[in-house]
Write a structure and sequence with these properties.
Number of domains: 1
Strand content: 15-25%
CATH superfamily: Barstar-like
Radius of gyration: 15 Å
CATH topology: Barnase, Chain D
Order of helices and strands: HEEHHEHEHE
């Protein structure tokens, strides 16, 4: 099994657990994810484009194709994040919804209050989708030198983070 295949297997186990009661946030040093299958709706967002709450709204709205009437506030963001399983043009609905956040160390690094709100919201989104029989997850990618700081920030916000790299498991 190649390291990439191994990451794919770890991601599938992580997503299976996230769809139940496991952590909805995972951390990897890989900047690209393997194919997660046709039933997964995946969008990639760069933390460098989401350093404030305002830029987070803009970046997620663009990546997830929020409606034009998106109100650019926390309540509107929460509403849109709970509609990510809407049918696509072909009428398909995903069973798994994943946001892959690259350069995760930069996420809301200019807005600590915004980070706390966003981090706390991940469990809310996970529970919403789990109750609808779907899986929601956020996968953080960062460099090896920044991984401990990323984990510590999420830990400080009270959000459990699953390690997705075999050499980093506890």
């Amino acid at each position: 099994m190649t390291p990439r295949d191994d990451l794919g297997a770890r991601l599938r186990r992580f997503l299976d657990a996230a769809g139940k009661v496991g952590p909805a946030v995972g951390l990897t040093l890989e900047s690209e994810l393997p194919d997660l299958g046709p039933d997964t709706r995946l969008r990639t967002v760069s933390g460098t484009a989401a350093t404030t709450t305002g830029t987070l709204f803009t970046t997620f709205a663009r990546a997830w194709d929020f409606p034009d009437h998106f109100g650019r506030n926390r309540d509107a963001f929460d509403d849109c994040m709970r509609d990510l399983d809407a049918p696509d043009a072909a009428g398909r609905t995903p069973t798994t919804i994943v946001t892959h956040l690259t350069k995760a160390d930069r996420l809301l690094d200019e807005d600590n209050a915004g980070f706390t709100w966003f981090a706390d919201s991940i469990g809310f989104y996970r529970d919403h989708y789990r109750d609808a029989g779907r899986t929601f997850a956020l996968i953080l990618s960062t460099s090896g030198s920044r991984a401990s700081a990323v984990r510590a920030r999420w830990d400080a916000a009270g959000v459990p983070v699953a390690e997705l790299d075999s050499h980093r498991e506890s």
